[in-house]
Amino acid sequence: MRVPLSWLREYVDLAADATPEDVLAAMVTVGFEEEDVHRFDISGPVVVGQVVSLEAEPQSNGKTINWCQVDVGAANGGVRGIVCGAHNFVAGDKVVVTLPGAVLPGPFPIAARKTYGHVSDGMIASARELGLGDEHNGILVLADLGIDAPVGTDAISLLGLDDVAVEINVTPDRGYAFSVRGVAREYSHATGASFRDPAERDFAELQPGAGHTAIVDDATPIRGNVGASEFVTRVVRDVDPSRPTPPWMIARLSLAGMRSLGILIDITNYVMLELGQPLHGYDLDRLTGGITVRRATHGEKMTTLDGQERTLHGEDLLITDESGPIGLAGVMGGGTTEMSESTRNVLIEAATFDPITIARTARRHKLPSEASKRFERGVDPLVPFVAARRAADLMVELAGGSLTDEGGALFAEVFVGDIHLPEGFVQSLIGVDYTDAEITDALTMIGAEVTAAEGGWLVIPPTWRPDITDKWSLAEEVARIHGLDRIPSVLPTPPSGRGLTAHQQGRRRVADALAAAGLVETPSFPFATEAENDLHGSASGEHLPSIRLANPLDGSAPFLRRSLIPGLLQIAHRNISRGLTDLSLFETGVVFLPEPGVEYGTDEVPPLGERPSDETLAALNASIPPQHRHVAVLLTGNVVVRQPGRTAEVAGLSEALDAVRVIGAAAGVDIDVAQGHRAALHPGRTGVLSVAGVEVGYVGELHPDVSAAADLPGRATVLELDLDGILTLATPRAVAASLSTFPAATQDVSLVIDADVAAGEVRDALAEGAGALLEGIRLVDDYRGDGLPAGQKSLTFALRFRADDRTLTAAEATEAKLAGVAVASERFGATLRD
What we know:
Blueprint: E1 2-4, H1 5-9, H2 20-29, E2 33-39, E3 46-58, E4 64-71, E5 79-84, E6 94-98, E7 103-104, E8 108-109, E9 113-115, E10 118-120, E11 123-124, H3 155-158, E12 164-169, H4 180-191, E13 214-217, E14 228-237, H5 247-255, H6 263-275, E15 279-283, E16 291-295, E17 301-303, E18 309-311, E19 317-321, E20 324-328, E21 332-333, E22 346-353, H7 355-364, H8 370-375, H9 384-399, E23 402-410, E24 419-422, H10 425-430, H11 436-445, E25 449-453, E26 456-460, H12 471-481, H13 502-516, E27 520-521, E28 527-528, H14 530-536, E29 559-560, H15 565-577, E30 583-592, H16 614-622, E31 627-636, E32 638-640, E33 649-650, H17 653-667, E34 672-675, E35 681-691, E36 694-702, H18 704-709, E37 716-722, H19 723-729, E38 745-754, H20 759-770, E39 774-783, E40 792-801, H21 810-828, E41 831-832
Parallel strand pairs: 13-16, 27-30
Antiparallel strand pairs: 1-12, 2-12, 3-4, 3-6, 4-5, 6-11, 7-8, 9-10, 14-22, 14-23, 15-22, 16-19, 17-18, 19-20, 20-21, 24-26, 25-26, 28-29, 30-31, 31-37, 32-33, 34-35, 35-36, 36-37, 38-40, 38-41, 39-40
């Protein structure tokens, strides 16, 4: 809501030196959010001038300009020569002159410049050039606005262009603040300034006349509420729609975010902004018979003010006459009875409509409006008559009309139930020791009626606050009025034993370790095709069950993924297509692994208003397929780019195995690699990953056909691990081991074994036989070729021995090594290589 400060000052005592920032700060203290400050983008010198003379000068381009002599006052240089292309003024008229140095909206700086053979020393301004409207019907003649000011007067202040508006964010539950009345009241609450309610007007006539009554015929009320509970009309005759809207009203409407549309419509908009009550004006002479408020019939149509023909719904509330629909109630009027330049008699409508009906109609027809925005939040039911009379008075004053006794009124009894506020409730809920006087004063300030009752108070909320419905709402008002800064900021004490679980900590360690190793985390959507699930979700590529979504985001990928690899392939393809070819990507995410023959999902949804029973929760959990959290890595392109003195190094299996070791170290497990096979990976370049003999994933180079299908140039290496599985298999490790002060003894051993024996199994046999003295073992060579029998290979291991209490001798290290060789020989027939 945008509120001009000059308008705000009419209804609340605003300090003369109060800045927009001061007003916004005050509004924040009572629970509103500040948005912006709005001003006219205009600066002086802009003054009142009087045309002394003008000479019409035809030009070669067919245009006729006026060479004018304009008196702008002695203080501003006296008479100045100005070129003007408009012709709607004569000598003697007073106009608005922008002198050199002024800046108009645009920005459009004004300077003396030569044009049409003259030096134009300023510009005579139109209303549009000053920011007072969109129409450009010639220059602004002050007499047409009823203004007669001395020559040289500052026109910026004269026309209200020095006004400024503050904008606040109004939450849906506080619709009363969509008005100057509501904002002025809240500013009064924030500062204690005196508030003058614009709805409390002293009218000589308190009831409308007997003509033009309305009938409400609502056959399908919503929630038992009729569509219109109040309907007030007033008639103003002999209006002059050609009269200009006063500059002060245009300025206020513009700052409030609305453009001027003519004096009659401007008045209805002005009153709506002032009181928060939407109004509608009908051309009385275009009405046929009386007015009936009813619901639309099936297939009924009407044309709204925006020129659109709309097919109506049976829930839409209509304003009709004998000719049919003439308005969508509370949303937009109809085109057949709209006010125009030929309107002479006006019927003003002010009503109270059901908020739900208006909200549904506005959304159904995609037709949000300033009126619907207020009706759907609830308007004050006591304001319609006041608003109709206020608009009628302005039409008399500004449009030359005559207020008649015609009109009608349909009033419903306004009843607001009381709320019992127990003594001590506010203090216990808010956590502040308010006194009883502070509580009653705050509630009285917002307009509520407070009476003492047994054990507390009975509170009747004001009619403009439909959001106050219970004791919790009342407590919130007390806290808001007395300052939210009084509420203590106390952090709750967490119970012991809470925090991240061991699995959650492990997941974070793995993700952090991969990121620290230089990989980039790239989350993807959990959707895949059935073919992708079959290829990447199984070792042999056989068909496995997948969960199909009932309403997929992407019809080409309607299944939940069984693997993270398809998502990484899509991300890699997208990056490569944009020129990023060296990629090291990883993702941690959930995969969905339904069991064959099991039906998942349920059509039974428990009610929302109560907690489901344990049996219902168990059934819902059983309807969800198993979900495992995996971690996957994709490497493609170069791991080291080409540079002086070093060739490029392509990412491959060694880098993928490094990533496996990083994951294992972060998760707290030792991951073993053995030769394996997967349909999506290259034969002979695939490894099966296991922990303590349990298979947990795979690593390898993508099959060339799979890589080509994903539009990846060159090779790509991937790995995928069951992250939940390896975290379950992890065993607690010491934070740090003691360091021995004795030196290590190193020995190498080369063993000849059958080529089909896994190196990892030989390593484990050596380690088992070497015993406690063995500190570390690693494979350093795998030789196959000349000097070895066919079908055999030579594996060389580097062994490191150390004792905690002494320096080992070479004999002790050799003895331990040979013990390991003996175990390997017994299991695999290994022999020492000569």
